[in-house]
Amino acid sequence: MEARNDLADPRPLGGGARLALGLIRRYRQAGGGLALFGVDCDYQPTCSAYTAECIDRFGLWRGARLGWRRIRSCRGHAPLDKIADPPPVTWPQGGLRMLKQKEVDAAEERLREQVRALSDEARRRFYALANARIRDPDTYAVLNWVLIGLHHLYLGKGARALVTLLAFGFGIALLFGDATLPFGVVLLVGIAAIELYELFRAQLIVQEYNNRVMRQALEQVSQGAGKA
Question: What 3-state DSSP class applies to 83?
């Protein structure tokens, strides 16, 4: 891991950040997701290395937010050509972008207009591709409520499900040590807060996912039409 630079957060790392970096280091030493769970990262550097670097540069909470955003986008499918995505050197201007209902609604309407403009045959191909992957927000919400982390698998986010389960397991393990008990409580409360927040945003999260599915289906239909 690279040394911190002058453009990073100049404050010294706190105990929580050092603990998080130690946990990530042990996870990577054990072989990471590929060795432990058979899940390979889409990116270079991997999500765990990216998160560790972000925590080292920006502190625990900012670094964890950047790492969480990266993990959300990783599907754990390990493409032949890894996607190059180095950690940012400076904190993103304007902070991290959050999903907004109006933007997602507008994107969905633009996609539906493009679908309506397709020929009948192309539209049939589009729906055959999209309907196989479109997800239901109520199912996502139920899985979120019932299963810790596994609801991410419903959206094909294997890496995120893995990290959530791993963090939950670490939190449980920390509860059994007198010195680490407070860290375990904080970690478990943090996981619960994130998952509860996403439970209330299930409709928006799934809608944005479905927009990506529609966009990919449109691209496939367009590429097929170009080759015809």
Answer: strand
* Token pair recorded at residue 180: 């680490």
Instruction: Identify whether 79 is preceded by a cis peptide bond (ω within 30 of 0).
Output: no
pLDDT in tens, 25-59: 888 888 887 777 777 888 888 888 999 998 888 88
47 in Cβ contact with 83 (< 8 Å): no
Task: Please report, to the nearest 10 degrees, the dihedral formed by the alpha carbons of residues 160, 162, 163, 164 taken in order.
Answer: 80
What DSSP designation does 77 have? B
Query: Is 50 exceeded by the pLDDT of residue 119?
Result: yes
**Ordered alpha helix ranges (H), the chain:** 15-29, 32-37, 47-58, 60-73, 101-116, 120-131, 137-146, 158-174, 181-200, 202-227
Element of type H or E holding 43: strand 43-44
Give the angle 54-77-84 at the CA atoms, nearest 5°.
40
Distances (CA, A) of 155 to 75, 93, 161, 173, 203: 9, 29, 10, 28, 13
* Contact (CB, 8 A) for 24 and 18: no
For CA atoms 196, 155, 96, 53, the dihedral sign is: positive
